[in-house]
Each structure stands twice: as structure tokens, then as C-alpha cells.
Amino acid sequence: MSSAERDLQAGRILGAWRGGAAGFLGIPYGRPLTGEARFAPPDTDVGWEGVFDATAFGPSPPQAPAPPVPEGADPDDYLRINVWTPDPDASGLPVIVYFHGGGYVTGSSADPSFDGTALARDENLVIVSMNHRLGMDGFALVDGAPANRGLLDQAAALRWVRDNVAAFGGDPGNVTLYGQSAGAGCVAALVTMPWMRGLFRRVILSSLPNAYQSPERARQVASDVATRAGTRPTAADLARVPVDVLVTAVAEGLARNGPAPVVDGEVLLTDPWTAFGDGLLDDVPMMIGHTADEYRLFVARGGLLGRVSTVEADHALKALAPGSPDAYRTAYPDASCEELYDLVVGDALFRMGTYRLAELHEGTTFLYELTFTVPAYGGRLGAPHSSDLPLVFDVFDEGVGAELYGGDPSAEARELGVEMRRAWGDFARGGDPGWLPFDQDRRLTRVFDDQLSEVRYPEEASRRIWAEHRFGPLPAI
């Protein structure tokens, strides 16, 4: 068995073997984000004497509710990277870098739901994940600070991968970026940046959110949050506000809006739909997909399962449906008000923006939909948002895996997880997940369920409703 000690540019680290892979957890890639550094570009000048203990996760980014801080750790020192490898002494292993979701305001690579052990072991890959700034610190557009600091953190982490992943057996020239939900939003933004070329070869986007902001909207959000925190929306003023106060101010306003990547014209030059439509990513193979019932988990968490009223459905249709709200009633004549609510919100936030990116990409694209029904809530959730993650990571007894699969998955769920990990691994190895690429004529889609199939895109009714809609940065409210 290979040694669990590695030499990196910053110093020597000690990891630990568990479950057939060596894990190196909580490795610093940036200096602590204290004071004015909270709103500055990441400082990657890090190093240590002796051997760094990388056997446990580091601190998580500030968020609500506040995550626990490891004993003796600096809570501001959360720019950390995790690496799992089946063989640290190997060379040339494909690399998947995972970007977590959480609406740009929550989430952490220390979440055991995203433990990379099984994916690394089963598919002979190096798996990497990282923390980045969230909320106001990560995405508020304010005077005196660069925009999209969370994306700048992730870019710094990808440079770290380029410089260090060979020490874990990985190939820095064969890196696949994999993001889910807000993580997919980050990946789709990063790959549009010209200076990111050379840091990745392929992308996997799961449940891409339609949440990029125009500068006008982003400044509006920053001003609203700053007002709730009792300060002004400038980097200097916000840096003097305690982190927990800003986190609370963001959480209080999430029902209306929250910080997210902004198309500022300097860090993020354009939105992904424009970039892909203009052919800027035609040389980047992409695997992209969504779940069948994206919004139903949020309905359940909000206590609305079985309780969505006609008034609430009508409001969602008027606010979100492109063109006439009656289009959904016509396309789905037998749908209940709750089903219409779930459909239009899920389409607006995740499904149709995801599908449109597949349509716009002229390069090699593989489209999928997950339709496997989870047992939570007696099966009433169908295939909800995030139900793919326990299958890909083979983690069913933590976090969203325990919530959706009850901690004890069926044999069918286990078998589907094997198939999904194989597809993710095959795509990372050579760009072919095991089904034919998408094209405009056939719209071929891999359906992941207890029986695998390839069919014409299943959400044809919604596709037609959104066919003329232009996705892009959200305007001011």
C-alpha cells in the first residue's frame, strides 16, 4: 500500500487510507480570510514547516446555520482542498474536481455527502473538492473589491490542482470539472473565462441554475443586504461587519434574492448561454443533465407538499412562465396545481436552462435525465434535486443521501449508483460516458433509472414552452 505522505509545493502532508482510497483532507490553498482579505483576491502564498496533518476536514465557509469549527482551527482559514486517490504512487490518473452546490450561500467540501472515496476507488480516479467564499464575501458586487471572489477562489484552487495533483497520481492534463446546482453554475462560469484555458479538459454540469445576475441586480442585492446589516455596500465597510452578522443578513433576504455570480464584464465577461452559443466552448466535451422533479424537494422542505394552493400556482405561472401562463395548463392539462407549481419553478430554475445549454453547445455533448424515484416522503418526491449525488458518491448515510434514501438504499439504487459512477468515470477518462452524443435532430438523452434507456428528450412539453426564451443575467427587480 502506498504511503499516505506526499510532498507538495507548500510542504509535506499526511493523509489516511480508508475504504480503498487515500484521503488528504483540509489542505490549505489560500491564506485566512480576515479583515480586508475577506473582499480581496485570494492570497495563495501558503506553506508550513514539518508535516501538515491532512487526515481531517478543515473549517467550512461562514453560512447559516453556522457549521462546527474543528477544535483549535481558525474559522477564517477555510480555503481548503481535499484529495482522494486510489494510488498516490500512480501516474496519469484522470482527475475530477467537484464543485458543491448550496445556492452560492451555503455548502462545504467538508460535507461527508461528497466524500470522494468510492468514486476514486471504483473508477480509479483522483477526486478533488474545495471550499470557496460564499454569500456576500464571495459574490457581492461592491465598490473596492473585485467581483466574483468565490470564482476567483475556485480558479486559484484549479491552479493548485494543476501544480500539485501529480503528487497524488493525477494527470494535470486530464481534469474534468464537475459541478452540481450552484457548483454547476460556478463551473459553467469558470469555463467561459479565457484565462482558465489549460486548467480543464471536460465538464460535467448537473442541475445548472438560472441565477447569474446583471450588475444592476447584483448591486441591488448587495445594497439590500448591507442595509439589513446596518452598513454601506463597500468593501471597506463590509469588512468591518462581523461575518456572522452578514451571514444573518443574507439569510433574512433569501426569500427575495441572494448573492450569486455576476456578469461584471471583468472577471465574468458573459453568461454561459451566450458563451456556448457563440461557440467559445466548442472544443470542450460536456456531459450535462438534470433530475426529473427538480423543485419537489424544496416544496417538501418548505412544508408545502400536498398544500400548494391554486393561488400559489397561479402566482408562480405568472411570474416565471415565458409568454402566457396558460401555456403550462395547455401542455399539462391533467396536472394538479401543485404539479404545475413544481413544473414551472423547476423548469425556470434548473431544467430548461440546463437543457438549453446542451442545445447551444456545438461541441460534443452528452445529455441525461435522472428519473429514479427516491423513497423519501413515501416516493412523493419522484427524482428531486440532489438525488443524483448519493448515487454518484455512494454516500447514503449522510446529509442528502440519508434525507432522500433513508440511509439504507435499495439494491436498485445501489446498482444505479454503480452505473452512474461508471458513466462519470468513463467520461473523465476518455470523454465517452457510454451513450451517443446529443444533437438537435434526435435530442438523444440517457435516462438513469432502475432500467437504463436512451430516448428523445423526455421533457418535450416544457421544451416547447421555453423554446424562444433567452437565458442570461437576471435584471434588476
Automatic annotation (TrEMBL):
Source organism, top-level taxon: Bacteria
EC number, UniProt record: 3.1.1.-
GO molecular function term, any single one: hydrolase activity
Presence of keyword NAD: no
Segments traversing the membrane: none
Keywords, alphabetical: Hydrolase
Domain Carboxylesterase type B stretches: 7-434
InterPro entries in the record: AB_hydrolase_fold, CarbesteraseB, Carboxylesterase_B_AS, Type-B_Carboxylest/Lipase
Family of the protein in this entry: Belongs to the type-B carboxylesterase/lipase family.
Protein name listed in UniProt: Carboxylic ester hydrolase
